[in-house]
Amino acid sequence: MAKFLVQKSEPLYGEVHISGAKNSVLPLMAAAILPGEPCTIRDVPKLLDVTVMEDILKSLGGTVKLQDDGTLDIDMSAMNSAEVGWELASKMRASFIVMGPLLAKKGKVKVYMPGGCTIGERPVDLHLKGFEALGAEVIVKENCVEATAGPDGLIGASIYLDFPSVGATENIMMAAVLADGVTYIENAAEEPEIVDLANFLNKMGASIKGAGTDTIKIEGVNKLKGTAHTVIPDRIETGTYMLAAAITRGELMIKNIVPDHVRSIAAKLRECGVVVELTDEGLYVNGGMNPLTATDIKTLPYPGFPTDIQSPFMAFLTTVDGSSTVIETVFENRFMHVAELNRMGANIRTKGNRAMIQGGKELEGARVAATDLRAGAAMVLAGLVAKGTTEISSIYHVERGYEDFVEKFRALGANILRIEE
Ligand code: UD1
Question: Can you give the pTM of this predicted structure?
Answer without folding.
Answer: 0.97
